[in-house]
């Protein structure tokens, strides 16, 4: 493989850089009249765990045996952090994390920003840069923050660093989430799981509370 395709070199390769710049000029760039995201007055305090939004969620669910079990915590402003340990079942190549799995972890930590804004939103677009391979047993330190809002659109960004909060940058993602009503899940979800979730008063109370603006 050409040395030019080494991760660090790729970022300075003019062809790659211009492709990336033109992408960021489109749907992941907040419009000029976008506003800063606002932390909800009832958002968990910095350092507080957010808890799972759904026990069966692949990203954060405590009752999902195949899941990532991300346990995100509130950060300062509209930000969140989490640690993710890469396990043998997360492999793509021998001993290395699967890229799609890492993108899932980024999607989940970005989705956790909902808790800071008391907004229900879903991923519309997710763009991920894989900067270096992530070995099994690594602990990825994930951080996400919302950067702007425009109507129902929430712009946000996340990083994953290996070994510590200031460790080498391994994964980076930018995303656009779109605010939805609770009905989004009722209309599109499968009946059995919807009914089970609706039977859980905590889930329903939390979801409804998020629909009320500060
Ligand atoms: C409860 C939290 C769970 C968090 C779990 C982790 C996050 C997830 O994985 S969520 C699951 C994955 N995502 C999904 O399933 C979403 C599937 N997609 C959808 O349901 C719809 O396409 C949805 C809701 C995103 C947008 O549809 P709709 O509500 O009709 O909105 P629509 O009017 O098309 O778009 C609203 C705005 O967003 C923009 N937008 C929508 N999709 C995109 C996109 N993919 N890229 C860029 N912009 C987009 C539109 O251009 C529009 O912008 P503007 O207001 O400036 O005109």
UniProtKB/TrEMBL annotation:
GO terms for cellular component: cytoplasm; membrane. Residues 95-159 form the Thioesterase domain. It is a peripheral membrane protein. The keyword Phosphoprotein does not apply. Residues 1-47 are annotated as: Disordered. Keywords: Apoptosis, Cell membrane, Cell projection, Cytoplasm, Fatty acid metabolism, Hydrolase, Lipid metabolism, Membrane, Transit peptide. Its EC number is 3.1.2.2. One of its GO terms (molecular function) is hydrolase activity. Residues 19-29 have a biased composition (Polar residues). InterPro entries: HotDog_dom_sf (IPR029069), THEM4/THEM5_acyl-CoA_thioest (IPR052365), Thioestr_dom (IPR006683). It is an enzyme of class 3 (hydrolase). Residues 1-12 have a biased composition (Basic and acidic residues). It catalyses: hexadecanoyl-CoA + H2O = hexadecanoate + CoA + H(+); tetradecanoyl-CoA + H2O = tetradecanoate + CoA + H(+); (9Z)-octadecenoyl-CoA + H2O = (9Z)-octadecenoate + CoA + H(+); (5Z,8Z,11Z,14Z)-eicosatetraenoyl-CoA + H2O = (5Z,8Z,11Z,14Z)-eicosatetraenoate + CoA + H(+). GO terms for biological process: fatty acid metabolic process. The keyword Lyase does not apply. It is found in: Cell projection, Ruffle membrane; Cytoplasm; Membrane. It comes from the Bacteria. Belongs to the THEM4/THEM5 thioesterase family. This is Acyl-coenzyme A thioesterase THEM4. It comes from Streptomyces radiopugnans. The lineage of its organism: Bacteria, Bacillati, Actinomycetota, Actinomycetes, Kitasatosporales.
């Amino acid at each position: 493989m050409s040395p030019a395709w080494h991760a660090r070199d790729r970022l300075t390769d003019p062809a790659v850089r211009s492709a990336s710049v033109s992408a960021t000029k489109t749907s992941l760039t907040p419009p000029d009249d976008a506003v800063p995201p606002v932390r909800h007055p009832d958002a968990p305090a910095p350092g507080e765990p957010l808890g799972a939004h759904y026990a069966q969620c692949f990203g954060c669910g405590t009752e999902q045996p195949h899941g990532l079990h991300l346990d995100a915590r509130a950060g300062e402003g509209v930000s969140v952090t989490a640690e993710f340990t890469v396990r043998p079942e997360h492999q793509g190549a021998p001993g290395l994390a699967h890229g799609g799995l890492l993108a899932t972890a980024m999607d989940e930590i970005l989705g956790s920003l909902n808790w800071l804004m008391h907004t229900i939103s879903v991923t519309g677009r997710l763009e991920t840069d894989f900067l270096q391979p992530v070995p099994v047993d690594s602990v990825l330190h994930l951080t996400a923050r919302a950067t702007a809002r425009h109507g129902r659109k929430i712009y946000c960004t996340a990083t994953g660093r290996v070994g510590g909060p200031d460790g080498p940058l391994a994964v980076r993602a930018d995303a656009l989430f779109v605010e939805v009503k609770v009905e989004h899940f009722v209309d599109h979800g499968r009946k059995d799981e919807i009914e089970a979730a609706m039977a859980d008063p905590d889930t329903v109370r939390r979801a409804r509370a998020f629909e009320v603006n500060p």
